[in-house]
Amino acid sequence: MLSPIRAKSFDTDFALDGVLGMPATCLRLSRDEEIFGEGEDADYVYQVVSGAVRTYRILRDGRRQIDEFHFAGDYFGLEMGATHRVTAEALTDATVRMVRRGALSDLAAQRGDAARAIFRLTAEGLQRSQDHVLMLGRRSAQERVVGLLLDIAQRTRAEAELDVPMGRQDMADYLGLTIETVSRTLTALQDEGLIALPSVRHVVLKDRRSLERMTA
Questions:
Q1: pLDDT per residue over 44-76, tens digit each?
Q2: Which of 19, 45, 75, 147 is the most exposed place for a label (fewest CB within 10 A)?
Q3: How many Å apart are CA 201 and CA 35, to the nearest integer?
Q4: Is CATH 2.60.120.10 correct for 8-136?
Q5: How many CA atoms does the CB half-sphere of 105 hold within 13 Å?
Q6: Backbone angles phi, psi at 210, to 5 degrees
Q7: What is the distance of C-alpha 147 from the center of its chain?
């Protein structure tokens, strides 16, 4: 696990879904810096303040499967068991808050609003995991790529122009595709006039309504 002593850190407040505030440590992370590893003790719960975080697992054959991308305001590290099921890394330069899991558990035992907030966040995480599994099993490559772009737009509150924090390999490892398939699909969407690609990390949704119909 990333040590607050090694990272640039400062004190802040930890707000759980707008319900409560607790003393927390805020960490400034460099791109690709590990926050915690799969199998490590789940002693903390985290919230992204700025930047983005990826969580992933390494499969038996050595491939990486990205579990989720987390953006500003998102929580991660909420576990049912005592250890982390995934590894978490800063996808970009990022700032995250961290608070001890035991302190949250104690507060949830004392306050119903805190318990409800933790339950709601856990349920939302489970729903996203279920949606991800459905996407991997039922959608075409084009539908997966379009779905990810629309998800980024919704979660970052972008209308048409997206600053995409992940590279093509990250997208491929999340969507269960090869990097070549992701690149070809983005090029095809651009050729069809549905998106524009001014740069590798910038995407313009030129026909958002048609894109939404593709994933409906």
A1: 999 999 999 999 999 999 999 999 999 998 999
A2: 19
A3: 23
A4: yes
A5: 12
A6: -65, -40
A7: 15
What is the C-alpha to C-alpha distance for residues 148 and 212, in angstroms, rounded to an integer? 11
Residue ranges of the chain that CATH labels 2.60.120.10: 8-136
Interacting residues of 213 by C-beta distance below 8 A, sequence separation 6+: none
Give me the pLDDT at residue 80, please.
Answer: 84
Spatial distance between the Cα atoms of 83 and 57, rounded to a whole number of angstroms: 13
Instruction: State whether the Cα torsion 133-128-37-41 is positive or negative.
Output: negative
Q: For 139-214, which CATH class?
A: mainly alpha
Tokens matching residue 93:
């330069």
Residues 6+ apart with CB under 8 A from 201: 163, 164, 165, 167
**Whose CA is closest to 64, among 147, 145, 141, 175?**
175
Reported pTM: 0.86
For the chain, where do the domains classified as CATH 1.10.10.10 start and end? 139-214
Q: 103-147 pLDDT, tens per residue?
A: 888 887 888 887 888 788 888 888 888 888 888 888 999 999 999
How far is residue 200 CA from its own chain's centroid?
Answer: 20
